[in-house]
Amino acid sequence: MFSPLELTLLLLGSAVLGVVAFRMLHLPPMLGYLAVGILIGPHALGLAEESHATHILAEFGVVFLMFSIGLEFSLPKLMAMRSIVFGLGMAQVGLTIAATMVFGWFIARSLPPSIHLSWQASFALGGALAMSSTAIVVKMLTERLELESEHGRKIIGILLFQDLAVVPLLILIPALARNPDNLVETLGWAAAKAVIVLVLLLFIGQKLMRSWFTIVVKRRSQELFMLNLLLVTLGAAWITERAGLSLALGAFVAGMLISETEYKHQVEEDIKPFRDVLLGLFFITVGMLLNVQVVIQNWWLVLVLLAGPVLMKFALIAGLAKLFGSSDGTAMRTGLALAQAGEFGFVLLNVVGGMELVDPFVIQVVLASMVLSMLLAPFLIEQSDKLVLKFSSNEWMMQSLTLTKIAARTMSTQKHVIVAGFGRSGQNLARLLQEEHIEYHALDLDPTRVQEAQAAGANVSYGDAARRESLIAAGIYRASAVVITYASTPSALKVLHLVHELAPTLPVIVRSHDDSDLDRLKEAGAAEVVPELMEGSLMLASHALVMLGVPLRRVVHRVQAAREERYASLRGFFHGASDTGDEAELIRLHSVTLGGGAWCVGRALSEVDIEGAGAEVTTIRRGKMRLPVEPSTVLESGDVVVLRGSAAAVARAENALLA
User: Fold this and answer.
1) Is 453 helix (H, G, I), strand (E, B) or coil?
2) Domain range annotation of the chain
3) pLDDT of 396-424, one tens digit each?
4) Which DSSP helix (H) or strand (E) runs through 633?
5) Assigned CATH topology for domain 396-526
6) Strands 616-622 and 440-444, bridge-based pairing
7) How far apart are CA 264 and CA 66, in angstroms?
8) How far apart are CA 166 and CA 143, in angstroms?
């Protein structure tokens, strides 16, 4: 038996190894925690046993998770999405529980007498199965840039109701377990206590919270702020527990109270480390519950309980989404994204097991099927487009209509800029392009933003720049540049791959958060990468220097020098037909595509007298690869060589390459 310190070290060490392994596989860390718990648990290697200490840590994890959910609770946001949240979301949770209870009634009749499955147990299991994984789904939607899409909004609305539904379920399930013979009185007393506690916390607590936090903040002590935050969270949880309710309910209410103050964002950042670590330990303890031997012996039952709920939830959610006015494609994507089990399902299943509502054997097979469904979730979401196109008869027509609208808007444009993303950065870029009388066409996945921007006269269409068909419809073969205005490296890499496959010589400018992905984006063919952190630091430095008395002219020169050193494109520009007068004599960039008959094909770069022509080679691109600009680099047919120099020098260098 391990000491508390040894147990903690074992859990932390195992958690680190598990998360590293699953991160390398590009899978959510939560699945790593579950896998670690299964491996070190009493039913596998037996390194860790269930104990009071592990249960306390697990319970604290749930407390901080519910506190975070309370922080995100926003009444205006809830009202704006009320038709989805309280319509679609409530219907999904309610019907999933009802379907599980009906299924449980049929199953109970075929189970051996030793395994009892009451309607209370079916209700509790239905609540657990109704939940979907917020962590997995939101992560996948963010990576795929689908949060603001039609199906993305429906998915978020349903997830929001599922999070809210956990609160009453955490009250109902223990009430059902304690006194099933006198159910009405038990539920009535639980509801009365919940109302009294919530009124006290919300009305009295609301008045006290802001003033108390103001007093604490004025002391200007981060340590005091953190201590106060832990006191409020655990204190509210203690109050609800003493009232016979759950710890998680009090933490949720505490989060709600703080969400109405101006300290919400600071609290969110401070509480995150505690939440993530303790929640990870909670998932390890959930994994420790799983008896691998029972699962192997009853693998067919686990597969049935995997396929049954997943298919049932998919059909139910897709059907409800269709009933609420969604297209077939949107309904199917919503169903596929939410068909798996979720984090709160494990929370509720843990409560069910603790209350002994369900036979341990049933808990084992249900737990195994939930874990497998979550492992399956990323693959279902990744393949959702292909599945929808295969099984939805009108999806092709809907997509064709969307592409036709994009093509109709861009048909008459030439040498325009394709703007990927029409958020703040995209709109600012579009405004500057308009002032310079440069045509552009933007693609964005937020239907509301697109509709409002179109009404205001902006050249924007609903479409995904990371799809080949959208780029072709936007006129990529006639475009002069592509600008990716959102900072998402995975999506930017997809766009770069498609652009350099469709139009290899087209320059692509990419926005990134920082320099961490600079090399990957450059290797993928980005003409320039603009890190927003660097631009922010340059503006910060320039304002600081001016305030410190440095002459404005010198500040401007320093900032310009820093930019020229960082951005190759600022040391020259691509020549256009409109360049006249002095502009035509400036240093410019010029792309030369080498044909099969070019003189330099098959020769090393050192054999071409580029320097003698007064120019230099800045980039050599072969397909999607950026080759090193070295004397030994051998040029091949199809290579794109970017020259830099004056108009005359560039012309002489091009002649040296081709003649």
Assistant:
1) helix
2) 4-391, 396-526, 584-658
3) 566 666 667 677 777 777 888 999 988 88
4) none
5) Rossmann fold (3.40.50)
6) unpaired
7) 15
8) 27
